[in-house]
Amino acid sequence: MRNISIKGAAALFLSAALGWSSVTGAQAPEPIAFIGHGAMFDDTGKQIQATPAFIEKAQAYYIETLSAQLQPSQKAKFSAERERYFKTYKRSGDGGGQEGVKQDTLIINAALIDWLIKEVPQSDFGDLQGKNNLIKAKLRYRLFPPEVGAPYAAPQELMNLLKHPLPDARKD
Q: What pLDDT is recorded for position 98?
Protein backbone atom coordinates (compact mmCIF):
# COMPACT_ATOMS: atom_id res chain seq x y z
CA MET A 1 0.00 0.00 0.00
CA ARG A 2 2.85 2.34 0.79
CA ASN A 3 4.31 1.88 -2.71
CA ILE A 4 1.03 3.01 -4.24
CA SER A 5 0.95 6.22 -2.17
CA ILE A 6 4.60 6.97 -2.99
CA LYS A 7 3.92 6.40 -6.70
CA GLY A 8 0.81 8.56 -6.47
CA ALA A 9 2.73 11.35 -4.74
CA ALA A 10 5.52 11.11 -7.31
CA ALA A 11 3.01 11.29 -10.16
CA LEU A 12 1.30 14.29 -8.57
CA PHE A 13 4.64 16.04 -8.06
CA LEU A 14 5.70 15.32 -11.65
CA SER A 15 2.35 16.55 -12.96
CA ALA A 16 2.66 19.78 -11.01
CA ALA A 17 6.27 20.29 -12.08
CA LEU A 18 5.38 19.82 -15.72
CA GLY A 19 2.28 21.99 -15.50
CA TRP A 20 -0.14 19.17 -16.24
CA SER A 21 -3.70 19.52 -15.12
CA SER A 22 -4.40 17.63 -11.92
CA VAL A 23 -8.07 17.48 -12.91
CA THR A 24 -7.50 14.91 -15.64
CA GLY A 25 -5.01 12.82 -13.67
CA ALA A 26 -2.71 11.36 -16.30
CA GLN A 27 -1.96 13.55 -19.26
CA ALA A 28 -3.91 12.44 -22.31
CA PRO A 29 -1.82 11.93 -25.43
CA GLU A 30 -1.79 14.89 -27.76
CA PRO A 31 -4.37 14.30 -30.52
CA ILE A 32 -1.93 15.25 -33.29
CA ALA A 33 1.53 13.83 -32.66
CA PHE A 34 3.07 15.33 -35.79
CA ILE A 35 2.24 16.75 -39.20
CA GLY A 36 3.82 16.47 -42.60
CA HIS A 37 2.95 17.12 -46.24
CA GLY A 38 -0.52 18.39 -45.36
CA ALA A 39 -1.42 15.38 -43.22
CA MET A 40 -1.85 14.77 -39.49
CA PHE A 41 -0.53 11.68 -37.69
CA ASP A 42 -1.13 10.10 -34.29
CA ASP A 43 1.62 8.90 -31.95
CA THR A 44 1.78 5.51 -33.71
CA GLY A 45 2.39 7.14 -37.10
CA LYS A 46 -1.11 6.44 -38.41
CA GLN A 47 -2.56 9.18 -40.59
CA ILE A 48 -5.54 10.96 -39.04
CA GLN A 49 -8.56 11.88 -41.14
CA ALA A 50 -9.66 15.48 -40.57
CA THR A 51 -13.26 14.70 -39.65
CA PRO A 52 -15.38 17.30 -37.88
CA ALA A 53 -15.43 15.13 -34.74
CA PHE A 54 -11.64 14.78 -34.72
CA ILE A 55 -11.02 18.50 -35.29
CA GLU A 56 -13.48 19.39 -32.53
CA LYS A 57 -11.78 16.93 -30.15
CA ALA A 58 -8.29 18.19 -31.02
CA GLN A 59 -9.31 21.83 -30.61
CA ALA A 60 -10.93 21.09 -27.25
CA TYR A 61 -7.69 19.43 -26.12
CA TYR A 62 -5.50 22.36 -27.21
CA ILE A 63 -7.85 24.99 -25.77
CA GLU A 64 -8.09 23.14 -22.43
CA THR A 65 -4.36 22.42 -22.22
CA LEU A 66 -3.24 25.94 -23.14
CA SER A 67 -5.89 27.85 -21.19
CA ALA A 68 -4.99 25.89 -18.04
CA GLN A 69 -1.56 27.55 -18.24
CA LEU A 70 -2.86 31.13 -18.40
CA GLN A 71 -2.35 33.64 -15.62
CA PRO A 72 -5.56 34.91 -13.96
CA SER A 73 -5.62 38.16 -15.99
CA GLN A 74 -5.07 36.20 -19.20
CA LYS A 75 -7.84 33.75 -18.28
CA ALA A 76 -10.28 36.62 -17.75
CA LYS A 77 -9.45 38.14 -21.14
CA PHE A 78 -9.63 34.77 -22.86
CA SER A 79 -13.02 33.97 -21.34
CA ALA A 80 -14.39 37.41 -22.24
CA GLU A 81 -13.19 37.18 -25.83
CA ARG A 82 -14.37 33.62 -26.27
CA GLU A 83 -17.80 34.71 -25.06
CA ARG A 84 -17.69 37.77 -27.33
CA TYR A 85 -16.90 35.67 -30.39
CA PHE A 86 -19.71 33.24 -29.76
CA LYS A 87 -22.29 35.82 -28.65
CA THR A 88 -21.48 38.41 -31.33
CA TYR A 89 -21.33 36.08 -34.27
CA LYS A 90 -24.73 35.04 -35.50
CA ARG A 91 -24.79 33.32 -38.85
CA SER A 92 -27.26 34.88 -41.23
CA GLY A 93 -29.66 32.65 -43.13
CA ASP A 94 -27.49 32.03 -46.18
CA GLY A 95 -28.47 28.45 -46.77
CA GLY A 96 -25.41 27.15 -44.92
CA GLY A 97 -27.65 25.52 -42.38
CA GLN A 98 -26.48 23.97 -39.15
CA GLU A 99 -23.41 22.53 -40.87
CA GLY A 100 -22.17 26.04 -41.70
CA VAL A 101 -22.62 27.10 -38.09
CA LYS A 102 -20.61 24.07 -36.93
CA GLN A 103 -17.79 24.80 -39.37
CA ASP A 104 -17.75 28.45 -38.31
CA THR A 105 -17.44 27.33 -34.68
CA LEU A 106 -14.33 25.33 -35.61
CA ILE A 107 -12.92 28.43 -37.34
CA ILE A 108 -13.49 30.50 -34.19
CA ASN A 109 -11.80 27.81 -32.09
CA ALA A 110 -8.76 27.94 -34.40
CA ALA A 111 -8.54 31.71 -33.85
CA LEU A 112 -8.75 31.19 -30.09
CA ILE A 113 -5.94 28.62 -30.26
CA ASP A 114 -3.81 31.13 -32.20
CA TRP A 115 -4.27 33.61 -29.34
CA LEU A 116 -3.46 30.99 -26.72
CA ILE A 117 -0.29 29.97 -28.56
CA LYS A 118 0.90 33.59 -28.44
CA GLU A 119 0.02 33.96 -24.75
CA VAL A 120 1.40 30.74 -23.30
CA PRO A 121 5.19 30.41 -23.41
CA GLN A 122 6.17 26.98 -24.71
CA SER A 123 9.17 25.28 -26.20
CA ASP A 124 7.25 23.74 -29.13
CA PHE A 125 5.57 26.99 -30.28
CA GLY A 126 6.26 26.32 -33.97
CA ASP A 127 5.09 22.73 -33.75
CA LEU A 128 1.73 23.64 -32.23
CA GLN A 129 1.30 26.63 -34.55
CA GLY A 130 1.92 24.32 -37.51
CA LYS A 131 -0.75 21.91 -36.27
CA ASN A 132 -3.27 24.72 -35.86
CA ASN A 133 -2.37 26.12 -39.29
CA LEU A 134 -3.01 22.69 -40.81
CA ILE A 135 -6.40 22.52 -39.09
CA LYS A 136 -7.21 26.01 -40.47
CA ALA A 137 -6.22 24.83 -43.95
CA LYS A 138 -8.58 21.85 -43.59
CA LEU A 139 -11.35 24.27 -42.57
CA ARG A 140 -11.12 25.98 -45.98
CA TYR A 141 -13.04 22.99 -47.31
CA ARG A 142 -16.48 21.83 -46.25
CA LEU A 143 -16.31 19.16 -43.58
CA PHE A 144 -20.05 18.52 -43.41
CA PRO A 145 -22.48 16.96 -45.90
CA PRO A 146 -23.81 17.43 -48.46
CA GLU A 147 -20.77 19.04 -50.11
CA VAL A 148 -17.85 17.52 -48.18
CA GLY A 149 -14.57 18.63 -49.75
CA ALA A 150 -16.01 21.62 -51.61
CA PRO A 151 -14.27 24.96 -50.97
CA TYR A 152 -15.66 26.77 -47.94
CA ALA A 153 -15.56 30.51 -47.44
CA ALA A 154 -16.50 31.68 -43.98
CA PRO A 155 -19.11 34.44 -43.99
CA GLN A 156 -17.73 37.98 -44.17
CA GLU A 157 -19.29 38.84 -40.80
CA LEU A 158 -17.21 36.11 -39.17
CA MET A 159 -14.04 37.16 -40.98
CA ASN A 160 -14.57 40.76 -39.85
CA LEU A 161 -15.01 39.62 -36.26
CA LEU A 162 -11.80 37.57 -36.42
CA LYS A 163 -9.84 40.50 -37.91
CA HIS A 164 -10.13 42.20 -34.54
CA PRO A 165 -7.71 40.02 -32.62
CA LEU A 166 -8.00 39.18 -28.99
CA PRO A 167 -6.13 41.68 -26.79
CA ASP A 168 -2.60 40.81 -25.72
CA ALA A 169 -3.01 39.98 -22.04
CA ARG A 170 0.75 40.08 -21.51
CA LYS A 171 0.65 43.88 -21.77
CA ASP A 172 -1.29 44.21 -18.50
A: 60
